[in-house]
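Re: duplicated header lines in exported structure tokens

Our pipeline writes sequence and tokens for each protein into one text file. With two proteins the header for the second block appears twice in some exports. Here is an export where it did not happen, for reference. First protein block:
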Amino acid sequence: MQNRVMLYSHDTQGLGHVRRNIEIARALVRERPTTDVLIVTGAPEAAYLPRPEHTDLVVLPPVSKNLQGEYTATTLDVSLTEILHLRGSLVAAAVSAFRPDLIIVDKEARGLQGELDQALAVAAHTIGFGTGRRTRLVLGLRDILDTAMTVRREWQNRRTVPTLRVSYDAIWVYGDQSVHDPLHEIGLPADLLARAEFTGYLSTGRHQSQAEPPAEKFVLGLVGGGQDGLRLAENFVETPMPNGHQGILVAGPYMPAEARERLQARAEQRPDLTVLGFVADPSALVAGASAVVTMGGYNSVCEVLASGRPGLIVPRVRPRREQAIRAEAMAARTHLDELRPDDLSPAALGSWLASVVEHENTRPDIDLDGLQRIPRLAADLLAAPVPNSKELADVIA
């Protein structure tokens, strides 16, 4: 039987959301090759990322944050209200035309500032292409969102809990409950906790690039998309590399051009250092590195965990605490180490690298098998009885 799955992420900053959705798409298609996947994203750079078969993109007009923390249209000269209405209309049209059996929404139950409201209304009356039954909806959450106080405030302001009750069939947390439990921490009501599943980290089975890593031994620096990783990058390019090792820094596609040029100019002065810009799939570099220094983004951490290589997390601590909380949790439960940003220096990085480059691969004692579990969860959800109209009315009431 052919199924159709839609994956949505608003993607106002970085590539983390869409990269996570691409890995989920790959897992679904690998388990059931007749599955068609449509990824809806606000990141134009998604077009350059490797995708699995039977997977296509709808790229929404991008939105970004200005220096005051306010959302604005990135390209079009339109108001925020206009761009959100346009994006929301495009998502709703995609739901109506594609007729997905399952929609997985990343992080924001109502999308960016409610842009999904129209699509949620359409989905409530959409019959899936493959199942012939009402489209099912899942909210997919990272292992860590932010501090509990911040998440509770944001979910209240965004009416997340009422939206989950009315529109969503399940909540999937892409993590290990024994490492961090964001749902109990924020006090999610019992009826919604009953719909929640912890999938395990989306780590084992991630796509492995066919690109050959460098032949010589090397250590790797990752700064996510690069938009807020300049301080780590500047320290990495000044770090003394371990004996017999090259250093490779991936600056990321969003690092300002002037900053990246400064880093590359420094690399030209060091024969043991290379600075790369946009790398569509860093998995081969992560797997081939003797050690990895990285920020604390979800995907980067999952890739280092999958590789088994020594990793040092230098988290972002503002404006969100997500990466700092993840770094602390990983340092407590896995072989990964944490370096607080206040302690960051070339000497600190060099000392850590020298101490770990000869370490063997390590598999931590946490659940890394989310990519194997999600296809089963999807199949179970699509096979489960669909609430009838009276049950839905009782929930709404």
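Second protein block, exported in the same file:
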Amino acid sequence: MHTPIIQFGTSRFLLAHVDLFVDEALKAGRALGGISVVQTTDNPLSRKRVTALASGSGYPVRIRGLERGERIDREQHISAVTNAYEAALDWRLIRDELFQAATVVISNTADAGFLLNEADSKKCLDDPGSIPKSFPAKMLCLLHARWKEQPDQGPSIFPCELVSRNGDKLKGILIGLAKEWGCDEAFVQYLDTRCAWANSLVDRIVSKPIEPVGAVAEPYALWAIERLPGLVLPCSHAAITETDQLEKYERLKLWVLNLGHTVLAECWLRDGAPAGETVQQAMSVATRRDVLERIWTSEVLPVFNAMGEGHEASEYVATVRDRFLNPYLEHQLADIAKNHREKKVRRLAPVVEQSRKLGLELSQPQIMATLGELQHV
């Protein structure tokens, strides 16, 4: 069965975020149709999920957490994924049929998903038996095969990787690779003008897998998508927001949620707290929570207020507070503290820089103490 949505990646995040949205929208008659999932790597855990998804019996998503202070604990059965394939085994079918029929392409291929592989070559463009190793090369070959059959009909492409302006980023990589491989200029123009590349931001903590397939997720969910002419959405859903100000949502997430995680990680490192301590446990320690609350209230929200975004920021802080206090979420600070130095620069320094640009007389002592010797980076 060919579906209008094809998804690259089997991550539990996609299962509990985009796929859940499509499932709920399908039941309300507001989705394009079902989803075909493609495993792009040889990860054995992904292979187990593909096998389970291919059975067609669906999977559970358990929603657990706090919503406006109220405990939520419910389970949903998701049946939007109707087919599942492995690129290594089903490449010809994916290339010649499934991708040709797709209106929407979704991806979430982890941190290294946009990296190229030196072993890939232009041979894969015309040889159906040559399977590229990297995700960008796979996409280029699939789009090239589609272009030859449908030169005027490109799909809407939604990368969900956690990269700023992810649609522009993936588009640039593919156009660069097409030029490097000496592709026809008409194909390069097709990539540039006939395909719709969505920049978007995803926001939901999916904390645990359910074996063999499924996930545990928090109640909060957002998929903010930059408005673009010709872009076709996979579905209509309350958690999907089309916007002309994607950067506003990026700021909120970076300066409130991500900053909050890094501040708690800094407190955890400073205090020599237990190795397995979670975000929720850290929020139960008065001294650590006090540091974070003071940063949010006195050092971050005034910057949003000065930008005319204070109301949205205050509401977002309230939702993030509920998320951090989630009694069901085992989000360990040891994981958050990885690459801690880089995260401090990326998540805290821009708040200080923006305050200075706005000419605010804001001391921001807690942020400056957290940045420490990095405050001038």
